[in-house]
Each structure stands twice: as structure tokens, then as C-alpha cells.
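Much of what follows relies on a compact textual record of a protein's fold. The record below shows the convention in full:
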Amino acid sequence: MNTLTIADIKRSGMHAIDAALRHGPAHLMKRNRRAAVLLSEAQYAALLAAAAPAAQAEGQDAALTLLLSDLPAGALGGAALAERAAAARGEWE
């Protein structure tokens, strides 16, 4: 995957982004570390289209996705799970 730095964007603006995306997705580098991935609109749409059937096939609803988000397996005990569910219910109102 090609790379693009913040300095390149500051120097050349949108031209630098367009040039990087001609070769596919590009890593955006900030202080010599990968900070983001740049995708064209078409690549982003294709990524969303590919992900949608997989999520539907698994039958995950919003609550399950919330409970499983960024947690290692077995990270929540019963009390912590109940607390997180209560907090989520509060956000729905």
C-alpha cells in the first residue's frame, strides 16, 4: 500500500491525495506512523457493500454489536455487563 504524509498534503493539497489514490488505498503517515487509510469513494462503497452481507448473515443486532465491540473474549462479568447494558439503555432515550 502506498503512503502519503501530512507534509505532502500541506505542500500539494488535494493533488497529493489524488495522486496517491491513483494507486489504490494509501496510508496517511503522521510523525512516521500510520494514522489512517485513505480510500476513494468507490473503494469505500465497495468495502461497505462487502461488509453488509457478512453482518446480516451473522444476525448481529445493535445491542450485540455494542456488547462485543473492542472487548477480548470473556472481558465482562455479570455486573459489568449489566452496567454497560443500563448505560446503553440510557443513551436510547
In short: The longest helix spans residues 41-58.
